[in-house]
């Protein structure tokens, strides 16, 4: 897999991937995590402008996945309940990881790329997103507790060092 920063030219493909991911999650018992058009085109455009949005391409050059990655403090991770972070060192956060379902290993390739950027990773997911929970367990993340997103909804927080 080839990972590169997303550009404005990737916007339609990214939105198509998110559409597929929303349908996949709904079909697998998680209909509410990315409801009401989340993530929005405006949010993704902001992520692209801030160099936080990345796309993952297969060997033929087709974009098959995407994610946002930020190194530095995530405000929603300041308070963790029902547990604690493994450490308080500088970390990278993976957000909005999604694939279009046409290639295997996309999530693991994205996680490994992020790990190569910084050895301390954090990520969160919805309690109903059992598919992502299995991926994170397989990838060696440790469940650390519960955080709350900007809108106050709870998420299971994970860390991998």
Q: How would you characterize this protein structure?
A:
This protein has one domain (2-160): Aminopeptidase. It is globular and about 40 Å long. It has helices spanning 11-27, 41-49, 106-117, 130-138, and strands spanning 2-5, 53-57, 63-71, 92-99, 121-125, 142-148, 154-160. It is built from 4 helices and 7 strands; from the N terminus they run E-H-H-E-E-E-H-E-H-E-E. Helix 3 links the parallel strand 4 and strand 5. The protein starts with a strand and ends with a strand. The chain has 161 residues and is α+β, with helices and mostly antiparallel strands. The chain has a 7-stranded mixed β-sheet, sandwiched between helices.
Short précis:
The protein has a single domain, classed as Gcn5-related N-acetyltransferase (GNAT) (Aminopeptidase, 3-Layer(aba) Sandwich), CATH 3.40.630. The relative contact order is 0.19.
Class, according to the CATH hierarchy?
Answer: Alpha Beta
- Straight-line N-to-C gap: 22 Å
CATH 4th-level superfamily? Gcn5-related N-acetyltransferase (GNAT)
Order of strands in the sheet with most strands: 1-2-3-4-5-7-6
Per CATH, what is the topology? Aminopeptidase
- Could you give the count of β-strands? 7
The CATH architecture would be: 3-Layer(aba) Sandwich
What is the total number of structural domains? 1
User: Uncertain runs with pLDDT below 50, 5 residues or more?
Assistant: none
Q: Please identify the structural class as seen in this structure.
A: alpha+beta
Summarize model confidence as the mean pLDDT.
95
Helix content: 25-40%
Shape: globular
Count of discrete alpha- or pi-helical segments spanning 4 or more residues: 4
Strand content: 25-35%
**Major β-sheet, in short?**
7 strands, mixed
């Amino acid at each position: 897999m080839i990972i590169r920063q997303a550009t404005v030219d990737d916007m339609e493909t990214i939105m198509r991937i998110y559409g597929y991911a929303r349908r996949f999650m709904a079909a697998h018992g998680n209909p509410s995590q990315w409801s009401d058009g989340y993530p929005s085109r405006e949010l993704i455009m902001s992520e692209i402008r801030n160099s936080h949005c990345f796309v993952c391409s297969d060997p033929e050059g087709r974009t098959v996945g995407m994610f946002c990655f930020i190194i530095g403090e995530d405000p929603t991770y300041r308070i963790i309940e029902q547990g604690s972070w493994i450490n308080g060192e500088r970390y990278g956060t993976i957000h909005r990881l999604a694939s279009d379902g046409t290639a295997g290993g996309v999530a693991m390739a994205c996680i490994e790329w992020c790990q190569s950027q910084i050895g301390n990773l954090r990520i969160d997911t919805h309690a109903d997103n059992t598919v992502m929970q299995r991926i994170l367990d397989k990838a060696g993340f440790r469940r650390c507790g519960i955080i709350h997103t900007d809108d106050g909804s709870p998420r299971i927080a994970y860390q991998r060092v």
